[in-house]
Amino acid sequence: MKKRYRNGETWDFEHEIGVLGDREVILGLDGGTTSTICICMPIFPFSDPFPDPLPVLSRAVAGCSNHNSVGETAARETLEQVMADALLKSGSNRSAVRAVCLSVSGVNHSTDELGILNWLREIFPTHVKLYVQNDAVAALASGTMGKLHGCVLIAGTGSIAFGFTEDGRQARAAGAGPVLGDRGSGYGIAAQALTAIIRAYDGRGPVTILSSNILQILGLSSPDELIGWTYADPSWARIAALVPVVVACAEAGDRVAHEILQDSVEELALSVKAVVQRLGLCGEDGKGSFPLVMVGGVLEANNKWDIGKEVVNHISKSYPGVLPIRPKVEPAVGAALLGWNFLLKESHMEPCKTSEEWNCTVARP
Amino acid sequence: MKKRYRNGETWDFEHEIGVLGDREVILGLDGGTTSTICICMPIFPFSDPFPDPLPVLSRAVAGCSNHNSVGETAARETLEQVMADALLKSGSNRSAVRAVCLSVSGVNHSTDELGILNWLREIFPTHVKLYVQNDAVAALASGTMGKLHGCVLIAGTGSIAFGFTEDGRQARAAGAGPVLGDRGSGYGIAAQALTAIIRAYDGRGPVTILSSNILQILGLSSPDELIGWTYADPSWARIAALVPVVVACAEAGDRVAHEILQDSVEELALSVKAVVQRLGLCGEDGKGSFPLVMVGGVLEANNKWDIGKEVVNHISKSYPGVLPIRPKVEPAVGAALLGWNFLLKESHMEPCKTSEEWNCTVARP
């Protein structure tokens, strides 16, 4: 195996630890803008259902690995280090690795994919299978237990709907950021709430309790000060963090907050429906069942006003076969399962499980 | 007079030129983020109508004087230099100045105003009248020929409605930037057009000729590339520059472009109506006449689809007394006329002209 000593001594541990038998492993990575997580999972024999809990040997955490945010060199160093950490923690080294499945944000084109593949190949020998994907793919796999079929809706600071068919076609909708109309996202919801405060203040819009509630949280004494607060820091996450206040106001009966959440529901449902329609995920009669994996803070259950539940209700009016799934495992585990599934396929082992056989929480709308 | 030598030799010329008689002058400044303009105008006796053309002695141009953009020191140096240039060009010096009216963007609070007043006072002796205002005030005055009464609607990259009553009350609406919902602005129009391209591409929205027309202008081959283009540069003006393409598409019959412009019209009209309502500019019966000064690229006459005309039509349904004005003079002249008007008032000379007597283009809706 080619030895590399990037970061000084990233892989030095391999000389120092004894390898535990001939156990083979898969690395699953979920690389995001906030943090990067690597899971080391043993290759387990196919079983139905999956073993519960899944056999995870180790978990390592590092910082941002989105190359658009921190640059290519820093992103790669982070990814390499988190893989080495996970292997060290599991008592394995690179000779035990059968596959690496890296799902990372900022991978939008085949050129992004190829760049990362080339660099991963410098670390791992040719018999190791390498898979590089956008981070939405790991989110889907975390709900479908590694199978690429169905649609994933991610609604956190941003929002995106990503879909895959069994024959390998894919489509996405939304996910173009706040300037390009991600109204359903956490940022979109919060920005509309801030706008509603300004509109109530200058007479263009109705009075709303969003004004007092949000100004209090931000420590501002007047809507005038909101302008300075808004443009003082370009971070989208800082604005999206106000979503719980908007939900609380809607739950308290505020009409303006209610309408903002309703708009978000319609936008999120529309992005899923666009993907389902383009891929024909619902079958020819529009009634076929398909999994919808739902991920991100905006979709998590609220008390009375549950955005995720409303989105599913909305979608099921057009596509009654929607099977909403809230993943039981994290995206890095989804990535590892995805790698495991790819390996199975490539080695002509047992066929992948069908959509009815997933071991996951399926909540009917 | 106190002598100052900021910028090395800003005022050196005063020792070198002979002063032309005892002619007294007013300086009117329009300080913006793109450029700063200073007009030197002689004090002329009150006449009705105003002399046409107005007696302007000189005009000097400099760069940005918004202290939020370039910092306080650079902003002040720019303002001082452009005043010195205008005086030099007019053959006057500071001893001829009776009043300075400075209308500058970034002046939003009385603390901003006081800071600039204190510094202006270091340049000009105490008998010189000093007035500091937000730049919307000069825009209004450019339409009302120096009188602070009525409403000004500015729609360029951003948008704002600003209103004043004869007894000194004022109100504003919109003008809080793109995150806080300036949908009617040039940026708002163009961002909605870019969003429409993404929505048509991913199946969430109808097909529109905005796609081909805007991608061609930007030299992009696919809507996918629009995301990178949008976030590559945070300048709002770069996006707002696409407004003429949206107007051309609407004029060619594109429904999506038409609806975006229609939305802009409603938003701009709403911001004016909010100001008129709050200030009672329309009188008790809602039918009183009031001037509406219209400024900025978005409101300039287009061929078939005239946003400014549609805005006036919309407002006149609620307030039939609206008197739209497209200024014949630039805002710096408006500032000089404002200074002239303040002087008149303070010296108990002839009363200000009434709204029926302005020498300006009044176009009935």
Automatic annotation (TrEMBL), chains A, B:
Quote the Pfam families the UniProt record gives: BcrAD_BadFG
Listed InterPro entries: ATPase_BadF (IPR002731), ATPase_NBD (IPR043129), Euk-type_GlcNAc_Kinase (IPR052519)
Presence of the UniProt keyword Amino-acid biosynthesis in the record: no
Keywords, ordered alphabetically: Kinase, Transferase
Q: Does the keyword Magnesium apply?
A: no
Q: What is its EC number?
A: 2.7.1.59
Recorded GO MF terms: N-acetylglucosamine kinase activity
Task: Please state every residue range assigned to the domain named ATPase BadF/BadG/BcrA/BcrD type.
Answer: 27-339
Q: Looking at the record's lineage, which domain of life comes first?
A: Eukaryota
Family in the record: Belongs to the eukaryotic-type N-acetylglucosamine kinase family.
Q: What is this protein called?
A: N-acetyl-D-glucosamine kinase
